[in-house]
Structures are given as C-alpha cells and as structure tokens.
Amino acid sequence: MTVLVPVEISGQWTQLGETVDSLAFDASATASDMEAASSSWTGLVSSYEEPATQEVVRAAFDQVPEVTRAWSDVVAKAADALQGFATEAASLESRASDLHAEAARLQAWLWVSGLVSGLAGDLTAEDELLQRQIVRHNDDVLALNSRWEQLVQETAETLESIAGGGGLEEDVPEVTAEGGVYSVTAAGSSGSGGGSGDGAFSAALIQMVRSGAESEDAVEEATELYEKVTSDDVTGDDVKAFYEQLENLDADQIEEFAEENPKINQYSMPLPANQEQLDSWPTGEDGADWWKSMGENGTQNAMLAHLPLLTGNTEGVSYDARNRANLNALERLQASDDLAQNQRDRLDAIANSLDDSDGNDESDDGGDESGRMLLSLNMGQDPTTPGPAIDPPPADPLAAVSVGNPDTADTTSFDVSGMNSGTHNMPSEVNNAQRLHDSLPGNSSQDYAVVTWIGYESPGLSDVSFDGKADDGSWALAYALDGYRQTMDAQRPEDETTVNVNAHSYGTTTAAYALTRTSHDVDTFTMYGSAGISEDAAKHASDLNVARTDEGRPAVYATDAKLDGIADIGRFTSGRADPTSAEFGAYTFSSDATGNPPGNPVNDHYQHIGSDGEYGYRDDNSQALESLWRINAGRGDEVDEVTDTTVDYYENLFDQHVEKDYVQEPGSTYSVDIDYEVTVGGETQRVETRYEAMELVNDHEAERDFNRANQDDAKTEAFDQYLESLYDELVTPRTVDDDGGDFSLVPQTELEVELGDESHRVQTRDEALELIKEYYNEHGLPASGGS
Description:
This protein is α/β, with parallel strands linked by helices. 49% of the residues lie in helices and 13% in strands. It has 23 helices and 17 strands. A hairpin with a 7-residue loop joins β12 (658-664) and β13. α2 runs parallel beside α5 and α6 runs antiparallel to α7. The protein is elongated, with a radius of gyration of 41 Å.
C-alpha cells in the first residue's frame, strides 16, 4: 500500500496580490493622466499648416487615451485573475502542507504495521484503521493535486484570453516614417498624409504602451536562471549566465531576489560532479572578475548581506569576504526553524570549530589570534522531489575551515580527512589542522594557512573498500584546489604561493582521484595511514598532478605506522595499492621512530589519540607530525626516506646504544614502566620515551658524521697542499714545435710530468695536479710526505 504525497505548492501569494493590485492602480492612473492631457493636444494640431498633416496628428493623438484606457482595462482583468489565483493558491498551499505532514505520519505507521507484509488475513483492527485513513488521505491528495493543476490551467487560459485586450495589439496604432510621409493604421482602417510634421512623440508613447507588457524584469530573469541552475541537467553555461545576471542587479534588486527565492540561503549552488562540468564551471579567475565587478557596482555588501551562502562559496571571491559571508549564512541557518536535526547538529559543530579557546589544549592562542576562517559552507541541494514520494532527508552540511588566512599566506595546505570523518566531528578535525599550523616555523597566519577540507561524504567501515565516495568527492576537491590557485593568480599575480595536500586514511584515496583531475599542480602531496590508491586514479606517483623535487621525482610522500591495522584492512579489502610500496614511487618516511626527524612512534590509525604515551599521526611530538610540518614548510629533504636498508641501519644503531629497563612502580604488583638507558660518547643517560632515546642517538650520530666530514675535509686539504709542494719537483715546462719536436719558430709550451718510470705531457697546471693526485692515490705518498 502506498501513501501519496501532494504536489509541492510554494509561493509568496500575499506579495503577488499586492503587486498586481499596485500594477492595476498604476495602469488606471496612467490612463486617467492620458485622458486629462488629451484636451491640451488640440492646440498642437493647429501648429501644423497642412490640413493633411493636421488630420494625421489628430488621429494619432485621439487614439492614445483610448489605447491606454484599453490597456488599463486589460491590466485590471489580469490583476483580478491573478488575485483570485493567489488567494486560492495560498489556501491550497496550506492544505498541501497539512497533507505532507499527514503523509509522513501515515508512512511511519505503515512501516511498522501488518500492511507491509501484504497478508490481509493477518490484519489487526489497528491495521484496518490505518488502511482506511490511507485511502481517505490518498483521495484528498488526488483531489488537491487535480484542483491545483486545474487552477494553474484556468489562470493561464484567462491570461491568454485577455492578452492584448482580446486582440488589443491590433488596436494599437503603428506609426511608421518613410521620407516625409507618415502612415497611421488603426482598427482596420488606414490613412496617409504628407507633410513635415514630427511624429516622434506619438511613436514614443505607443512604444511605451507596448514595451510595458513586453519588458522582462531583471529579478524575474535572475529567478528563471536560478531555476535552471538548481535543475538536474544544469550546465556550466547555466551557472555562468546566472552569475552574469546577478552582476546586473542593483542592491535593492539583490535583496528582492533573495526574498523571492528563500531557498538560495537554505541550499547551496551545485558543484562540478563530472569532467564536463569541471571543465565548464566558472573558474576562480571568473569569480575574481565577477567579485571585482560587484565592487565597482557597489553591490558587494548587498551580496554579503542578502546572498551570503552563494557569495561565501564562490571560487574567486577573496577568502576574507567568503569567511564573512559564510559566518552570516551560518548564523541565519542556525536561527532557522526549517532545519532537520542532522543539519542543526552539524552546523553547531562547525560553529564550535571556529573557536579554539576550548578543546585545543595544545594551542595557547585564542580563537581570534588563531585566525580560524569559514572558507566554505555547503548545505547541499534541495532534496525535494516532485510527485507522490517521500522526500529524502537533507544532506549533512559540509565545510572547510582554515587556521590562518589563505589570502595572505605564502603556503596553504589542504587537509583531506578519511573514514568516518565529517562535520559532526569538525572541532577535532580543525584541531588537527591547528597542531600542524602551530608546528610550522614562524607560526603566523601571514606565512601559513592550514585548511580542514570536509567537502565530501566519507565512508564508514562498511563501505571503505569501495571507491564510489572518493570518486564522487574528488570533483569538489579538484575544483577547490584549482580555485585557490586561480584566486591567488588573480589577487596576487606577483607572488608565488605554495599549495600542499595532506591526506589521511580514505582521504588519500579521494585526494589521489582529485589530483588526476586538477588543471594545476600542487607542490606536495603527503599521505599517512592510507586506505590505498585506486589504479583508476593513479598507478604511480608520477600520474598525479604534483610538482617535482630537485631530484626530478614527484613530491609525493607516504607513511604507514606498523601498528596501523585499519589502513592495512582498507587496502587489503579494496585491492588498492599501498603508496608506501617501492612500486608506487613516493618518498616513504617513518612513523615508527626510525630515522630523522626523531619523534614518537604512532600507535594506531587515528590522527589524534590524546592519551599519555599514545600517539596518532597528528599528535605533538609524533614522528609523523615532525615529518609532516617539515614537508609542508618546504624542508622535505630533512625527512629520511625509509627503505629496507635504512630501517635496518637505524634499528641496529638504536640497539647498539640503547637498553630497555623495566621498572616496577613502588607498591604495585603489575604496573611496569619502561625506561631507556642511552649510552653515547662514553656517557649514559636514562630517558622515559623511545622518542627521547632516538633523539639522543640521532644527535650523537649526526655530530659524529659532522666531525668525520670536517676531518675528511681537513685531510683532503692537507693532501692537496702536499701535492702542490711536489709540483715543482715533478713538473717541467717544455717548449715544443708543431710536430712535437723540441724547437719551433712558433714556440708552444707543454708540461711534462715525471711519475715513477713514466712521463706524461699535459697542457695546464690543473691537469698536471690531477695526474699527480691520481698517481699518489693509487701508489701512496712517498715515505717522507703527508700525514
């Protein structure tokens, strides 16, 4: 059994009634003015000398009051029809709203009733009551839908029947001019006359009457374009045309448009969802030009005030303006009574994420000093579906929050989170960005911005093995990354801004798809705890749109902690590639306290654990975060690339210098702490963490390497100086002729080098010294020379 849903009826019926009344009044007033003015036209006729011309002018002037009165009557009839339509439509909308609520109640009852099974013999009295109520409800819905359709059709036919006053267009005089002859045709009759009289006044008046019914209101045109933009078959050209029309509106019209289209501040503009749309959507450069034009028109403030959700999510608008617009949109949405609970909860979480004064123990900065900005707020599209169906619940809001200002930052990093992430957990996600921002050298909004990008619906454990959500979400990410590059190119063409992408878990899968679809390279791409990279996205790091390092390799980095079992499951169940494998070609670095930079090992799959002795990938003092901030700061060369050889080297080095000491806590039978005893440079120190032990060992080895290098340099310098002292003893200048003899009229000089039993001829001193160096490197220095 099916519960029918009434047709969607929505309109500003009171405003429609007031508008048509005002139009009818204005039309009547215009007709009265024309009639009152007609008596003064008589004097104009006598100013023409030719009788024929006087007749033409009199005929034209006499028809104007009649035409305007007929036009006024047409408007009055149309106003009556529209007023009746608005009155009944308002009543039908109210009834439709009641039936929608009733449908939801009956549907919920139906799902738990015996009617679902379809076994009539099993029906209870309550089921039979429900059945009767559904039948009555469905009859009411069908009756309402039929009346609405009938009302729309009747009103359309009425307006069509009175268009032009039932043929009024034939009654409007047409005034044309050919040479000195003016022709006036009206009501099926014709007349002509000669003369030099000026018919411009009459022609202009008639054109005013005609154009009054034909001109398109700018707000109405914007509304029509908005309907196209929110349709399922929207194109990039539709979106561009809508923005161009908004550019043509003044501040009052922008406010009027917002009032007539309330959903534009409840739901978001569509984002590209395939390659064709990504290629055709307005670019950041287009948006920057549009926003600049709005500034020149003096309508930026109107956009921020009345269309904040659109403004705050337009690529190319400055991020400062987007932040202000989105904060306005967020405040208005939170005050709305039309939100579903899932929307309200997530908007509250987004609002909480903008203030780090609570919940981020690692930062000493307050919310204002942190410079947190709401760069995007995506409420999804209107889920309302036409026809007899229950509307799906609205989508969860999505957002991007920045720590630092991307408008001014020299380096902006985008964080893409993974499985089970979302705006429901926005404060924690933004705190992960805060920890990276606080770790970066300089630590200022001028230097760095770190963006928490929660712009797609991430999977849970049940669907993390599938690529669908990564593929779907990648288009929006690619659009955001290119949009940032294009916005900066427009705002700061002389500056070179660095763009990094950091991705965790399934976010690496999503980001990899996005980085095959961007039109601009990012500077680095770092993956940690990856759920795997699909072959449909990239088979090798070089397939990604990422810049190259000085070594000529893609600046793609990856790490995976040994204790991160969830990442292993994600790759195993999906069959996606491990980006830390040698075959993928990324720079692999350690999260297990191996190599440089030193740091604590990661104990799990999570970014933040927050308990003593346990570390996630983005926890302070973890090796993963120590490496990540260096990569984001352009110091990736300070991060050791991990191979089987380097792992063995550092583990052996650790074992040589460190012993674990298990210490039982006083008064406890079971609780045991592990201390580390580190012996380096003849001294022994006791530390509490592996991180501290590894740091001591690495610092010691780095100092030894430095000293060895200095010693080697000193030895090399002494060796070179000794060889210089042998030069005069081993090298003799020789003058030779062109044929290699001992004398020529045109003398040439060569150097003869005596080394052992052999003699060599060279042209320059450097060549001679190189021969001497090679010889003594092979045979050793004389017994009396060097050290």
